[in-house]
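C-alpha cells incoming
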C-alpha cells in the first residue's frame, strides 16, 4: 500500500523551458488519446484539472501537448501546497518533528519484536542500517525507505509533475495558489493509532521487492490516461487503511472543492495539479464537480 500512497503523497531537476503564452485549448488537441486531465467549465471560466504523480523519472518529460497547452493557456496555477523556498525548508523540519517518536521512546518500543526483526532484515537487504532509524515513527521509517528505493531507481520528487509545473509557474510569472499548507499535510499522520502505524510499516516491508514494478505500472497507466487502471492501482493499496484513505483523500477533496469552485466563479483561467487519486473515483474532485452541475470532460 505504501508504495502507491508514497507516489501520491510524498511531501517535499530537470526544469523545463518556461511556457509560451497561449489562448484557449484548441479543438484539434481534444481528439487524440485521453490523459489524466479534465476541463471544467462554468458560465464564466475554465479550469483544467491535472492528476499528478508526485515522484517521476526525469525522462517522463516533456508531457503530452494537450497538458502543456492547458498549462500555458492558464494565468493561475494551483497545487496542493505552495512550495516556496521557505515552505520547503519548513516542511523538512516539520517532517522530522512529525515523524519522530516521543522523547525516550525508540522503534523497538512501539513495534512487535517480529516486526522489528523483519524491518532490520529487510533494511539490511536493501543496504540500510536500522540503527539510524531508532527515533522514527514506523510510518516515517516506511516513507523514508520507500523514497530511498524510488530514488535509487531513478525516481525523484523534484521531477514530480506538480513540482515541475510549480517551478515553471513561478518562472513564468503565473499566480501560484496552494490548496493547503505543509502543516496540514504533516498533520494527516499525527493520529495514526499504534496498530495502524505498525501495519503501515509491515505492509511497506512486504511490498518492497515489487515497489519499482508497481510504480512503473502506475506511471505507464498515467501516461496512457487509463483512469480506471490508475484508480484501481491506487485505491487497492488503501483497502487495509480505510480511516487513512478517508483522511488523505476523501476529506481533502471536500475541503478543496470550495476553492476550485471559487476559481470557476472567477475570470482567470486556472491549471490545478493535485495527486491523481484526488481526481478519480466516485468521491474524486471530478465527480464532485459533475454533481454540482459543472461541465467536465476528460482531455
Amino acid at each position: 500500500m505504501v508504495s502507491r500512497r508514497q507516489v501520491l503523497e510524498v511531501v517535499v531537476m530537470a526544469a523545463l523551458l518556461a511556457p509560451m503564452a497561449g489562448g484557449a485549448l484548441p479543438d484539434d488537441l481534444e481528439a487524440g488519446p485521453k490523459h489524466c486531465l479534465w476541463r471544467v467549465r462554468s458560465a464564466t471560466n475554465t479550469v483544467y484539472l491535472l492528476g499528478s504523480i508526485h515522484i517521476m523519472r526525469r525522462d517522463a518529460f516533456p508531457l503530452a501537448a494537450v497538458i502543456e497547452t492547458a498549462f500555458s493557456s492558464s494565468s493561475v496555477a494551483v497545487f496542493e501546497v505552495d512550495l516556496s523556498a521557505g515552505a520547503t525548508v519548513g516542511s523538512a523540519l516539520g517532517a522530522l518533528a512529525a515523524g519522530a517518536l516521543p522523547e525516550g521512546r525508540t522503534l523497538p518500543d512501539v513495534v512487535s519484536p517480529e516486526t522489528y526483526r523483519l524491518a532490520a532484515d529487510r533494511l539490511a537487504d536493501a543496504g540500510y542500517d536500522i540503527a539510524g532509524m531508532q527515533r522514527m515513527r514506523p510510518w516515517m521509517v516506511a516513507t523514508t525507505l520507500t523514497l530511498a528505493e524510488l530514488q535509487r531507481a531513478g525516481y525523484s520528487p523534484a521531477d514530480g509533475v506538480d513540482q515541475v509545473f510549480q517551478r515553471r509557474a513561478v518562472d513564468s510569472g503565473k499566480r501560484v495558489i496552494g490548496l493547503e499548507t505543509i502543516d496540514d499535510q504533516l498533520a494527516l499522520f499525527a493520529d495514526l493509532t499504534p496498530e495502524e502505524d505498525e501495519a503501515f510499516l509491515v505492509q511497506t516491508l512486504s511490498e518492497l521487492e515489487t515497489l519499482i514494478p508497481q510504480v512503473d505500472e502506475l506511471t505507464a497507466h498515467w501516461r496512457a490516461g487509463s483512469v480506471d487502471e490508475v484508480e484501481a492501482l491506487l485505491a487497492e493499496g488503501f483497502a487495509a487503511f480505510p480511516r487513512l484513505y478517508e483522511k488523505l483523500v476523501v476529506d481533502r477533496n471536500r475541503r478543496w472543492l470550495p476553492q476550485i469552485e471559487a476559481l470557476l466563479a472567477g475570470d482567470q483561467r486556472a491549471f490545478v495539479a493535485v495527486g491523481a487519486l484526488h481526481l478519480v473515483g466516485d468521491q474524486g474532485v471530478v465527480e464532485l464537480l459533475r454533481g454540482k452541475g459543472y461541465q467536465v470532460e476528460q482531455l
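note: The first helix runs from residue 2 to 9.
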